[in-house]
């Protein structure tokens, strides 16, 4: 497998760099080919302008996608950009390694995305989503370090949830270009934890990467679900879940299975939102927003929940 690690940290001794280098080590030990694009060390120029091109379509007005289409047809990406585009085209697994900056990626990496994912050559026309460069088979991973901790990004914190923060990368860059996004690897607040905890992160990363080939990616909706690229052909259903039987030992023993079932539904994009009352609440309720074709399909899915015999479901279509 050919792996491209695009790394964006200005300090080679940083923890973020340590994670990226550990990933490189693990992949090499497995016999994979690793291309390590250290953007700072290579002094990558992130500014997108006429210097992207050695041939010009319109000398009077710069429109990046017009010029990209032109040089895709006649040749003429600037040599530094051509090199990066080839790196991207060659990889089977794409990794972005970076510290979270202003809820996003550092400018040097954003500039790499802006310049390298070029219209015509990489995306555009039929080359988007499942028809994109990754062809719905190549995979992509975010390796992230943060300043804030997991509570701040967990959905009930002062900052937006991490899924929202990562949407421009996971959905807007990876999946838009046909790369299947894997769950991100996040080292929370490495500057505020102990050396042992940092060491545990490095080990956890090495362990996870051993099986990265068999890991199931996150499922984002294909373009085929949006006729004429309009509204989703799948509907939204709000499901109110009520407990109808008392909690017994059997119920308790099935909780881990129920949790994995729900996690799988989230991975598949079937459950878009899930909220529940504290377990001791009486009466107890949970609420799910489900993306499905029709109400019958929702009922069929709900019946597969391990705890279904203890629960009742009220399903309404919402718009
Ligand atoms: P470092 O400080 O480099 O590393 C932490 C510690 O790990 C250091 O003591 C280092 O010596 C040690 N270390 C290095 N290698 C190893 C090793 N092999 N084993 C064990 N220890 C090691 N945070 C947010 O949450 N949200 C934001 O929006 C945000 N915006 C930011 C914007 C800017 C411009 C900046 C500068 C920071 C921002 N931050 C934000 C914080 C930033 O995300 C964190 O500072 C960064 O992710 C921490 O990772 P690091 O690798 O830089 O840590």
CATH class of the largest domain: Alpha Beta
Q: What structural class results from the helix and strand content?
A: alpha/beta
Largest sheet: 6 strands, parallel
Bound molecules: flavin-adenine dinucleotide
Form type: globular
Look up the CATH topology of the largest domain.
Rossmann fold
Question: Domains counted in the coordinates: how many?
Answer: 2
How far do the termini sit from each other?
Answer: 43 Å
DSSP strand (E) fraction? Answer: 15-25%
The share of residues in helices is 25-40%
Q: In sequence order, what are the helices and strands, one letter per element?
A: EHEHHEHEHEEHEHHEEHE
Q: Low-confidence segments, ≥5 residues, pLDDT <50?
A: none
Mean pLDDT figure = 97
Which architecture name of the largest domain does CATH use? 3-Layer(aba) Sandwich
Let me know the number of strands. 10
Supply Rg: 23 Å
The H-level CATH homologous superfamily of the largest domain, spelled out, is Flavodoxin domain
SS summary, helix count: 9
Report on the structure:
The chain has helices spanning 15-29, 64-74, 79-90, 107-116, 162-174, 195-210, 249-253, 255-267, 295-302; strands spanning 2-7, 33-38, 93-99, 139-145, 180-181, 185-187, 235-243, 271-276, 285-292, 311-318. By secondary structure, the protein is α/β, with parallel strands linked by helices. The protein has two domains: 2-210, Rossmann fold, CATH 3.40.50.360; 234-318, Alpha-Beta Plaits (2-Layer Sandwich), CATH 3.30.70.1060. Strands 1, 2, 3, 4, 5 and 6 form a six-stranded parallel sheet that branches. It has a four-stranded antiparallel sheet with strand order 8-9-7-10. The radius of gyration is 23 Å and the shape is globular. The model has no long low-confidence stretch (mean pLDDT 97). Residues 11, 13-16, 18, 99-103, 145-148, 190-191, 195, 198-199 line the site of flavin-adenine dinucleotide. Flavin-adenine dinucleotide (FAD) binds at residues 11, 13-16, 18, 99-103, 145-148, 190-191, 195, 198-199.
């Amino acid at each position: 497998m050919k792996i491209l690690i695009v790394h964006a940290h200005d300090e080679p001794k940083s923890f973020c760099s340590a994670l990226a280098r550990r990933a490189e080590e693990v992949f090499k030990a497995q016999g994979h080919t690793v291309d390590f694009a250290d953007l700072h060390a290579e002094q990558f120029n992130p500014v997108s302008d006429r210097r992207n091109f050695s041939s010009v379509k319109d000398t009077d007005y710069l429109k990046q996608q017009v010029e990209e289409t032109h040089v895709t047809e006649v040749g003429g990406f600037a040599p530094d950009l051509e090199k990066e585009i080839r790196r991207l085209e060659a990889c089977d697994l794409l990794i972005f390694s970076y510290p979270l900056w202003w809820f996003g990626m550092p400018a040097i990496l954003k500039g790499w995305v802006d310049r390298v994912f070029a219209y015509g050559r990489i995306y555009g026309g039929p080359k988007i989503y499942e028809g994109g460069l990754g062809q719905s088979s190549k995979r992509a991973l975010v390796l992230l370090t943060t300043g804030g901790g997991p509570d701040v990004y967990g959905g009930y914190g002062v900052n937006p949830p991490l899924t929202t923060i990562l949407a421009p990368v996971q959905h807007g860059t990876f999946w838009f270009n046909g790369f299947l996004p894997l769950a991100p690897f996040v080292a929370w607040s490495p500057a505020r934890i102990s050396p042992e905890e940092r060491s545990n992160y490095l080990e956890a990363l090495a362990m996870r990467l051993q099986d990265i080939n068999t890991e199931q990616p996150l499922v984002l909706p294909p373009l085929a679900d949006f006729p004429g690229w309009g509204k989703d052909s799948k509907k939204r259903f709000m499901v109110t879940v009520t407990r109808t039987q008392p909690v017994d030992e059997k119920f308790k023993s099935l909780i881990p299975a129920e949790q994995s079932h729900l996690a799988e539904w989230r991975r598949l994009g079937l459950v878009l939102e899930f909220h529940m009352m504290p377990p001791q609440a009486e009466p107890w309720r949970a609420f799910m927003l489900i993306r499905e074709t029709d109400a019958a399909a929702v009922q069929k899915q709900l019946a597969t929940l391990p705890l279904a015999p203890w629960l009742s479901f009220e399903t309404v279509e919402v718009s």
